[in-house]
Every structure is written in structure tokens, then in C-alpha cells.
Amino acid sequence: MAVPTAAMGPSALGQSGPGTMAPWCSVSSGPSRYVLGMQELFRGHSKTREFPAHSAKVHSVAWSCDGRRLASGSFDKTASVFLLEKDRLVKENNYRGHGDSVDQLCWHPSNPDLFVTASGDKTIRIWDVRTTKCIATVNTKGENINICWSPDGQTIAVGNKDDVVTFIDAKTHRSKAEEQFKFEVNEISWNNDNNMFFLTNGNGCINILSYPELKPVQSINAHPSNCICIKFDPMGKYFATGSADALVSLWDVDELVCVRCFSRLDWPVRTLSFSHDGKMLASASEDHFIDIAEVETGNLMRIFCLSSLDMRPSLVFLALHITSSPGL
After folding, report:
1. Which Pfam families match (predicted)?
2. CA-to-CA separations, 60 to 138, 194, 233, 315, 316, in angstroms, rounded
3. All residues at 6 or more sequence positions from 33 whose CB lies less than 8 Å from its CB, including other chains
């Protein structure tokens, strides 16, 4: 097991471009009514459950845009889709066809019936849950490890182990553009306005390109260690990054300034998720817990302790999942 990377204070974080680093963590004088209400709600829904999902390690999970389905991708070369029924998940279908591990998947931003998978078999596949079939297979040049769907639903971006990002037309299933990067590309994402494309890299930076021109706009020194993951909040006000330094940084989308850091994790931050209203941010690492914080203050909402993370072939499901639709 690797030795955990020590968390570093704000003085270790640098930034190029406009603005300066905000204080280490902006915390209000006391919990707000919202925080107190949500803490009470979490206390009443604090159980976790494990659902058998795959025969090997789970690599990726994602909620559909309407919050009704959860999809998972696994080292066993399959994807699974679960239907949310009250406080439990019911397995709907298993999706086979890839010849290698399914490393990442995502749903269409507005169509709750479509999702796409990225695999080490040098293909991506688009699936329709209504027919339970693959409706398109697109060949790519390398072993794919990350994927995202543009907010307008028109383009799919997929990155491979050789740090090549390919942009694929979601209707014609043909490549529109391809970019080779000279740095390690970890995770990719459009902003909510669909006019910028963000990449996190192995040098601790966030690289921003204009879209669709794909011209460099800015490079931000976000973390002193490998910048692993990135997530935009649904309201379009913030985005968050997670790093090997065990820190989560919250950034103002318009100013590109870090406004807050979250430092309760001890291991590299692997994944992030905002609640549907953008008020809460969940972060997870190799620690056996999930940290849920109020975005505006950094106040702790809840820590969910887990008996295991993704080393076993199961899904760990929180009784109250904060990443789903507003209807919950």
C-alpha cells in the first residue's frame, strides 16, 4: 500500500492568472439553518448498503440526469444499470460487449436513456436503456480511461492512456477533432456554458481550452501534487478539483480564483460530486469515508464511514444520495 500524501497548507498552492488565493477555508461563525437541517436529515438516513454489481472491481458510477438510474462500469468488462426505488437499488440490466475493462462512463446530460462507456479495448460504446443494446461503437486510437459528454449533448470527449483526447460527434459517431497533449491528462470536462474545455494534469495544473476552437486559454497551478479530478456544480457558479495532496479546491468559474479548500481527507482525492442544487460537495479518496461539506462555508455536513471502497465487486449506496434529481 502506498504511503498517503501529506496534506499541504494554502501557502503550497499557487495560481497563475487573475486573482489571488483566498484564505485556507472560509467558515461561518456558526452552522446555518440549512446546515443544521441537512445534518438532521443525514442523521436520519445514515445507513449504507452494499449491492452486488460485478464480478470484479467497480471503476466508475454515475447517476442519470433525472436521478432515477445509477450506472456502473467495472474491470469485468461490463456496465450495469440500477433503478432507484425508494431507498434501494434494483438491478435493471447488465451491458456486455467491451473486450477490456470499463474504466469510466457518463450519462447524456439531458436524455436519461443514454449513457456512454470508455474502455481499454480502444472503443467507446453508447447504450440505450430502453432497448438494453449498444447503439454505437466508435473505434479510437488508444486505451481509453476518461470520458465526458458536452452539456449540449452534441459531443463526446474521450481521453486515452497516451494523453490523446478525441472529440466525437454524438449523432454521426465520427471524430470531429483530436488533441495530443504533452502532459499527463487525468480528467476532462466542459464548463456548463459549453464554451471552455478543462483538463486536470499530472503537474497539479488545470488547463483550459476554448471550445470548439481548442485553443489554450489559461493554465492554473491548482495543486502542488497531481491534480486528479474535476467537477462543475449544476448552478454554474463553481467547479472543484481533487488532488494527490489530499485537498479539494473550490474555484469561482468566472474569476478562476480558488475560494475555498477542504482538507479533511488524508489520501489522494479520487472523485467529487455536487448535489443537484449545488449546495453540497461530496469528496472521496482512499480513506474509508465520504466527506460531505456545505459549499459556501466549508462546514462539515456529514462523514459517511464505509467498510470498503471499490476494492470489492459491489456498489456502496448511501441511503440519502445527494447527487440525484431535485425530486428527492
Report:
1. Beta-prop_THOC3
2. 20, 23, 19, 10, 12
3. none
How much is the pTM?
0.84
Rg (CA), the chain: 19
Nearest Cα residue to 157 out of 230, 67, 254, 234: 230
Closest by alpha carbon to 229, among 216, 242, 219?
242
- Which cell is 255 given? 474569476
The 10s digit of each residue's pLDDT in 217-226 is 999 999 999 9
Coil/strand/helix, residue 196: strand
Q: Band the pLDDT of 86: cuts 50, 70, 90.
A: confident
Q: 15-24: per-residue pLDDT in tens?
A: 333 333 333 3
- Percent helix, strand, coil in the chain, to 5, is 5, 50, 50
Cα angle value 120/271/294 (rounded, 5°): 160
φ/ψ of residue 268, rounded to 5: -55, 135
**Residues 125, 119: contact at Cβ < 8 Å?**
yes
- As a whole number of angstroms, the longest Cα–Cα distance in the chain is 54
Q: Residue 54: left if φ>0, alpha if ψ -120 to 50, beta else—which one?
A: beta
Calpha distance 157→265 (Å, rounded): 30
